[in-house]
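Hi D.,

Good news: the full-assembly prediction came through. Inputs first.
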Amino acid sequence: MPILGQNQYGKAENRVVKITRDGATHHIKDLNVSVSLSGDMDEVHYSGSNAHVLPTDTTKNTVYAFAKEHGIESAEQFGIHLARHFVTSQEPIRTARIRVEEYGWERIEHTREGAHSFVRTGQETRVAQITYDGSAWEVVSGLKDLTVMNSTDSEFWGYVKDKYTTLPEAYDRILATEVSGRWRFNWTDDTQPAPDWEASYAQVKKHLLQAFAETYSLSLQQTLYQMGSRIIEHRDEIDEVRFSLPNKHHFLVDLEPFGLKNDNEVYFAADRPYGLIEATVLRDGVEPRIPVDLSNL
Amino acid sequence: MPILGQNQYGKAENRVVKITRDGATHHIKDLNVSVSLSGDMDEVHYSGSNAHVLPTDTTKNTVYAFAKEHGIESAEQFGIHLARHFVTSQEPIRTARIRVEEYGWERIEHTREGAHSFVRTGQETRVAQITYDGSAWEVVSGLKDLTVMNSTDSEFWGYVKDKYTTLPEAYDRILATEVSGRWRFNWTDDTQPAPDWEASYAQVKKHLLQAFAETYSLSLQQTLYQMGSRIIEHRDEIDEVRFSLPNKHHFLVDLEPFGLKNDNEVYFAADRPYGLIEATVLRDGVEPRIPVDLSNL
Amino acid sequence: MPILGQNQYGKAENRVVKITRDGATHHIKDLNVSVSLSGDMDEVHYSGSNAHVLPTDTTKNTVYAFAKEHGIESAEQFGIHLARHFVTSQEPIRTARIRVEEYGWERIEHTREGAHSFVRTGQETRVAQITYDGSAWEVVSGLKDLTVMNSTDSEFWGYVKDKYTTLPEAYDRILATEVSGRWRFNWTDDTQPAPDWEASYAQVKKHLLQAFAETYSLSLQQTLYQMGSRIIEHRDEIDEVRFSLPNKHHFLVDLEPFGLKNDNEVYFAADRPYGLIEATVLRDGVEPRIPVDLSNL
Amino acid sequence: MPILGQNQYGKAENRVVKITRDGATHHIKDLNVSVSLSGDMDEVHYSGSNAHVLPTDTTKNTVYAFAKEHGIESAEQFGIHLARHFVTSQEPIRTARIRVEEYGWERIEHTREGAHSFVRTGQETRVAQITYDGSAWEVVSGLKDLTVMNSTDSEFWGYVKDKYTTLPEAYDRILATEVSGRWRFNWTDDTQPAPDWEASYAQVKKHLLQAFAETYSLSLQQTLYQMGSRIIEHRDEIDEVRFSLPNKHHFLVDLEPFGLKNDNEVYFAADRPYGLIEATVLRDGVEPRIPVDLSNL
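Then the structure:
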């Protein structure tokens, strides 16, 4: 008989908006929360018995109830509340993994009294993944869809040439990418004080943007390593970083047929195909735990 | 024999990035340009003769060549150069319509010398449509994907109730929408000075955000009218505004089954279905010209 | 004071699935229904009074109730029931426009008794728009996302060449497009028998596919005209057709640098930019009514 | 100094269309190929030296050249050619992973001579991943976006109830999901004959559809296990299957407020949130190798 292997279940993409009112000044948290539970679940697969199954509808209800009961201080803290609850309250559930996307909002400037009008920043989506197995915590934070460009200070030459190589070497090119990054915290024991999740996120974003801007780049791999390295060096709470960086090619348009010189001015922004550069950067001595493929983390 | 009606053709979605170098300080314009031409094109439909057809590939080349020859001062000005060229240089082409999407970039703060590192703002996409028939110009500017929210100061009651009505009246609700707006300039004659397209855009965006924030709303229609009205009143160069405003419903979650009171704190952000409110606001005495359905304008 | 122009409102994207049980044999209709109403709605814009406003939530309820009360014989017939209801039951509502997307399902072959297992066909999305103003009907049906290709029998040459033209002429190329089409019925008076909507759709789809396949093409415009013309000639119930045909370019890859001959075998399928060919084909003597831009019709 | 961990690079999403001409009868293969290489790549990250880097542009060229040199018999066979080439031709490259998406086409029926007109089937996207480290092969095939529904023969009851549970038990519900599945072949040694990739795919798709249709379901987990189990039992060449099955909820609409009875006829098809059920099914004695999260495999 075929054997059941790893399995997990839960309610994905619970969209929760939490308004906190401080008089006429409101604060907003806007999350997309996905719950994934695993444990003693063989029977529901083999016979269809739901005796160990907390319905996914219940996990959805729990997300909304916890937004009221615990508030949403940060995506990470909210995920910790949820993961602890599922693992400690239901015996068959051994591991809970909470994934969160967070959308940023900023205030609209206006002349009316009060502060309860917002506009989506629209820049990166912040993400977090919180995993708990009843003893140790793993928190991975990150972001996606943060598009950056250096319009110079990038070269690409000295590479291997085989019979299929036609690319000319480049000594001044655009380097652009859409950053997808994840970083793992070394906090695992909840008897120890947790990091300041909000401050940490802001600092990591600042460092990765600065490292991108400040690296004179001979390859996107070099830029990636600098971005990861900068985070490890400046943020003691983080042990591992992984980036997935599509090389968003900007091709210099050949204007010579029209009698025009294109002195690194006019580019075609291509969609597909694109280079894809992915790597992990680790604190020395640390074992990697972030999966190789980020796309759904 | 079936008759040919309105027809148009061109190259859509030419992605052009223009870097302007001022020493180590670079400036960027990032556009998606679509060209649509019409005129004396019966034969290519009836017999396949391309004798009147300037290839769409040529219109693409023209976009890139013009980025070099004329620069990109603004989406609108760039569209004007292109439209004039197609109508005046090819006899069979009687009308040109140029559509532009523009993506915003801001500088990355860093410590390196020079200023050539950018991050996409990611907020709204700016749009423009320039139409020219050889005598008069029509310029419609706009934006899309600008998501806004008031977390209070919105009510909805006093509406018609029929046998299919179950909605309870609301005296304090979230009002959120993703603004899609278009506004038409009264400039049509290029012997007259053109508006300052960049300054106009910035002011219109400011006015529509402020009107959204400052309107105590009894209906999304009322908010829409205030947004359009504010623009008409403050911007002499604009005669007509149209908005398409999806009502991004945020439903108060019923927490009573869990013994919790939800005092306008925890909301479910719904995707579909959504209310859709669309209307035109006009300067008195002006004929409307913006189409009823905005989605591809 | 700024003036209110054309306005409309309603609930968009109501996803309704209707199962009809004929013993153990089930039938399925899967629709996405958008309601848009207009009429005497000035006050809700100017003052926020909802006295004339049937809530969009009610229009949603009506969609679901009508699926039970009237069944869903076809997208068009269902839209007719809804449009008539809104215009005739609420005095302030003068015009109703119902848009429908329909997703196709086919049966899964299996050995179990009964016939209630389905798989989405995944091919084109069928669309319909029904408009009623209390006296005359307008029904426009159509489809989108139907991708077709001829791997030969397409040429492109004899076109205009200006200083920006670099395209070489082609005497054997791939012609591929993603068909978006709309066709208008001449049925307007509901005292006359309505067309057989389901049979008409199947025939129109067959004709447009065959015309695409059977036309030796000197331009995509010629193919478009043949597709529209075939429909007008074969389907008496239809007076007007409009197509929006992106030219999905397949570029022959240059394999000479690798010592290989590419005899129309290996192509790069490009995304952007793309040619965009749009035109209306009419029965002789008929006034066009389908808007120039199809994308949200 | 921060340490470099796992890293990989390559060109993603090379869109290749291969036409094979058999007189006037043409055959088509339409693939999206992503190349990912890893090996001795420390220096490019640490110093930017590209001495070991075969450019991603070259990997793109190789995809197109191989489509000519080897043809495209199947996605899997094509990936095998590519992976072998990269690992055996460049010393620093130790592992190659080729991912392929394949889009289906069927012939348009017509009266013209020849057979070179096609329409995209639009149903599932077929996927394959081929990995080679110079000694052993791993081939994982699969599909995504295959949407299926049983309109009856599904129940859900007998589950755990905690203080956040409000869901009523269901004894006759719709069960619908969008199948994402991957299956791993036990072929690893290319001195052994490879499976018939095309025949295997067709059979696996048939089995999973039939298992979905023929399982009277007490939980989506039970259905998932039946689908995987059926494949393992019928296909000797496959040792492991993993499915990710979103529960596409169809909620029975409450029509009682309108005096109507909804006897499992009218449903609201919801988007978010959704249940998400994921599991592996293995041949007894086999070690699992398919990653827990499928979304980008």
